[in-house]
Amino acid sequence: MEKAKLVQYRGGGYDGCIWEWNYAILIDNKFHDIYSSGCCGCDNIEKLVKYIKNKNIYYAYNLLDKKSIKDFTDNSNNDDIYNVAQYISENLGIDIFLTCTECNAEVLYTDVFLEGARGCGGIAITHDEIICQDCNSLYSCAYCQEFYGSDYDFDENGNCEDCQEKLKKSDIEGLERYIKENLFFGNTDTISAIKRLEILKA
Ligand SMILES: [Zn+2]
Ligand SMILES: [Zn+2]
Is residue 64 part of a domain? Predict the structure, then answer.
């Protein structure tokens, strides 16, 4: 492999729809269509050459150069980076490292989680954060596993607010059931259950 170029260009452009990033790779002048869409998509090299000659907007990255790859990963949409990294790794054997949004660690693309999902018009979803495995286990709720990030305050058991509420509710229900079933026995367990219930409901 002498030359490996990733081309990022403005494809898309369906009826009434705006452009979106499309991707192609040229390996020693062999064309790989990673993603092409709409009327501006280039699914063969002739179309891509024409696109570039028409001075349309595109970026080219050298996949054999770490700095150039970093330029791509620093300036592109996280979901695109992930999809391109996956294609490159599976088809070309080049490993792409992504930067964790929380701790800045460089992590192989297969070892990251995409977090911070948000809609971006229509049905498209993008993710604002790339999270390494360490940060994912550090900053996720111990109970529901949802990722919250380093600035979230979990309770002493590592649970999020939703789960605290949920667990409290099921505690209350359990205690109420226990008290109801054991009220006539009036033993010390029933009394401590009533006390615990009072504290939980306070
Ligand atoms: Zn991290
Ligand atoms: Zn939770």
Answer: yes
How does 25-57 read in b/e, with b if 16+ C-beta sit within 10 Å?
Answer: bbbeeebbbbbbbbebbbeeeebbeebeeeeee
Q: Which residue would you say has higher pLDDT here, 40 or 126? A: 40
Would residue 32 count as lying in a domain?
yes
Tell me how many domains the chain contains: 2
Asked if 112 and 188 sit in the same domain, the reply is no
| Strand ranges inside 28-88, DSSP E | 30-35, 58-62
- Considering every ligand atom, which ligand is closest to the CA of 104? 1
Ligand in nearest proximity to the CA of 152: 2
Structure tokens at 99: 């930067």
Whether 40 maps to a domain, the answer reads: yes
Tell me whether strands 30-35 and 58-62 are parallel, antiparallel or unpaired.
unpaired
Asked whether residue 155 is domain-assigned, the answer is: no
**For the segment 58-85, what is each residue's pLDDT rounded down to a tens digit?**
999 999 898 998 899 888 988 899 999 9
- Give the Å distance between the CA of 5 and the centre of ligand 2: 43
Structural domain boundaries, residue 186: 165-201
153 CA distance to ligand 2 middle (Å)? 12
